[in-house]
Amino acid sequence: MRPYAAALAAAALLLTGCDSGAVDERPDEEQTLPQPLPELTLDAFGSDAEPLQLADVRGPAVINLWASWCGPCRKEMPILEELQQSDAGVEVIGVDFQDARTAEAQELVERTGVTYPLYEDYEGELNGLAPFPAMRGLPFLAFVDEEGRVVHQEFVIIDDLAEIEGLVQEHLGVGA
């Protein structure tokens, strides 16, 4: 009976996303959107590229928080790369979030062929920093308009290009 319970628990984790393991003592307040991106500098992921001043981002853009230990994140990275390469008119920005497995993260980026800009938030500074919510798991997407405001955000597992294109059209009004 125990192997069945373990398999069921593993399947539930896979289907619901990945728990970051972070504990947040802040109250669970619903964010009113749109809100500007926070004043925060993120270092470039695994390179000497320029850091990102998050408040300077202008959309349409999709910010994806991911980690190498997150199965759904690994699956959707190539899909987000397809979005970046498409004619949708949206920039994809990836943030490796609270991921201590830097070698595995770098291997994942190489294996998936991701070319969109990547940054790192190993300390979890975005966790609960308005307008970002307390991160209860990954993957997480924030949709940023041309004024640099987060207009929509959600914990979501993207299954295909059509799904993310639909979200971009719905929340940013752009698409292929």
Q: In words, what does this structure look like?
A:
- The protein has 176 residues and is an alpha+beta fold.
- It has one domain: Glutaredoxin, CATH 3.40.30.10.
- Helices cover 30% and strands 21% of the residues.
- It contains four helices and eight strands.
- The protein has an eight-stranded mixed sheet with strand order 1-8-7-4-5-6-2-3, covered by helices on one side.
Task: Walk me through the topology.
Blueprint: H1 2-16, E1 35-36, E2 41-44, E3 52-53, E4 61-66, H2 71-85, E5 91-97, H3 102-112, E6 118-121, E7 140-144, E8 149-155, H4 161-172
Parallel strand pairs: 4-5, 5-6
Antiparallel strand pairs: 1-8, 2-3, 2-6, 4-7, 7-8
The gist of it:
By secondary structure, the protein is α+β, with helices and mostly antiparallel strands.
Give the strand tally: 8
The string of secondary-structure elements, in order, is HEEEEHEHEEEH
Q: Ranges with pLDDT <50 over ≥5 residues?
A: 1-16, 20-29
Which structural class do the helices and strands define? Answer: alpha+beta
Rg (C-alpha, Å): 16 Å
Number of helices, where a helix is a run of at least 4 consecutive DSSP H or I residues: 4
The CATH homologous superfamily? Glutaredoxin
Report the portion of residues in β strands. Answer: 15-25%
In the CATH hierarchy, the architecture is 3-Layer(aba) Sandwich
